[in-house]
């Protein structure tokens, strides 16, 4: 096992910059997730660590060794791709053992590792089968097993669960987290699925357009996003964003005024006519039946129900503001009965209201 350190890594393809100013250090044994929309550069970073891409500039260390000029086969990393890349003519046992045999590891050690890996991944009863006889989840575990058997310093995973159906993806994700807790191998995991990022990571690196937006543990990033991109990308349903204008000591949202506490006005240095994007997560919105329920730290907003999505234990409501195309996501209990066209008074927790600069997307609200 080893720490991984990137210093000002940049990668250009002709006139296109894929990643720029990538700097972070993954401590030995931690599980880090690179997350962001398609094309944000996360797979390029992973391939650069693996040695499959060459950094245009910057330094890359695995352990204390500078590896910029060291070929992939000598970096002591193991990679699992989105496609399983199993050899169809080999059995499960042969696939798991292949990397070790290529390195001419003693056959007795190879057999021991195959048995141990198969046991840890619940593959013992499948060792004599070939890939075509396995389900998608079983094939994915074999691909993981082949990488684990090598006992690498660093484990790299490039969207390994994206080809699985929803239930199998959930099950395999839980198995992967448990496996990391047992092996404690330094792991870099790439995904565009924010649920995978939140549930698996010790630390998350949020990327957009080739640059790092924020690094932190899942709860810290969720609670204190650095900008609007991070705020809306992490969370399901995503954070609501409401265009607003500051006037009359409040935020005008589609003709409705949300009060702003005096201390917040001073900290934000608000000016009349100034535009903002307000962010609030669905769990911080409740349905009010009485305007008297408003408190010092809440505000009311009247909306119209547009779409009702029953999800069993809860129901997701998408509601619209008058004279606005913006829709709010609201989570209510599964026993709440609403129909499109219903008008609701929503109570917003002002302590959980984020304020973003609409030009830069940066969060400018004071710390909660």
From TrEMBL:
Gene Ontology cellular component terms for the protein in this record: ATP-binding cassette (ABC) transporter complex, substrate-binding subunit-containing
Keyword check for Translocase: yes
Residue span(s) of domain ABC transporter: 4-234
Pfam families: ABC_tran, OB_MalK
One GO process term, biological-process aspect: carbohydrate transport
Top-level taxon: Bacteria
MF annotations from Gene Ontology: ABC-type transporter activity; ATP binding; ATP hydrolysis activity
Keywords linked to the UniProt accession: ATP-binding, Cell membrane, Membrane, Nucleotide-binding, Translocase, Transport
Protein name: Sugar ABC transporter ATP-binding protein
Organism field: Nostoc minutum NIES-26
Lineage: Bacteria, Bacillati, Cyanobacteriota, Cyanophyceae, Nostocales
């Amino acid at each position: 096992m080893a720490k991984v350190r990137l210093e000002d890594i940049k990668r250009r393809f002709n006139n296109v910059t894929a990643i720029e100013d990538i700097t972070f250090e993954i401590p030995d044994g931690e599980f880090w997730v690179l997350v962001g929309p398609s094309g944000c550069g996360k797979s390029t970073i992973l391939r650069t660590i693996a040695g499959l891409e060459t950094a245009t500039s910057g330094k890359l260390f695995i352990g204390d060794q500078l590896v910029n000029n060291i070929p992939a086969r000598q970096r002591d990393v193991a990679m699992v791709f989105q496609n399983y890349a199993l050899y169809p003519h080999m059995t499960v046992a042969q696939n798991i053992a292949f990397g070790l045999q290529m390195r001419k590891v003693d056959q007795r050690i190879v057999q021991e590792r195959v048995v141990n890996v198969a046991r840890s991944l619940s593959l013992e009863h499948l060792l004599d089968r070939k890939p075509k006889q396995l389900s998608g989840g079983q094939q994915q575990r074999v691909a993981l097993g082949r990488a684990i058997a090598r006992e690498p310093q660093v484990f790299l995973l490039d969207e390994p669960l994206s080809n699985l159906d929803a239930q199998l993806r959930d099950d395999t994700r839980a198995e992967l987290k448990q496996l990391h807790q047992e092996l404690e191998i330094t792991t870099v995991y790439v995904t565009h699925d924010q649920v995978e990022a939140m549930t698996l990571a010790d630390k998350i690196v949020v990327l957009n357009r080739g640059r790092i937006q924020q690094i932190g543990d899942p709860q810290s990033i969720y609670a204190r996003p650095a900008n609007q991109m991070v705020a809306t990308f992490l969370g399901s349903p995503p954070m609501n964003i409401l265009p607003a204008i500051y006037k009359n000591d409040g935020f005008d949202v589609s003709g409705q005024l949300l009060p702003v506490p005096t201390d917040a006005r001073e900290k934000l240095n608000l000016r009349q006519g100034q535009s903002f994007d307000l962010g609030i997560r669905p769990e911080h919105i409740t349905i009010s039946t009485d305007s008297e329920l408003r408190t010092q730290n809440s505000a009311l907003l009247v909306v119209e129900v547009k779409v009702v999505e029953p999800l069993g234990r809860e129901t997701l409501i998408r509601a619209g503001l008058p004279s606005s195309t913006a829709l709010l996501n609201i989570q209510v209990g599964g026993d709440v009965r609403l129909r499109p066209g219903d008008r609701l008074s929503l109570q917003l927790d002002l302590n959980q209201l984020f304020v973003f600069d609409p030009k830069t997307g940066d969060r400018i609200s004071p710390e909660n």
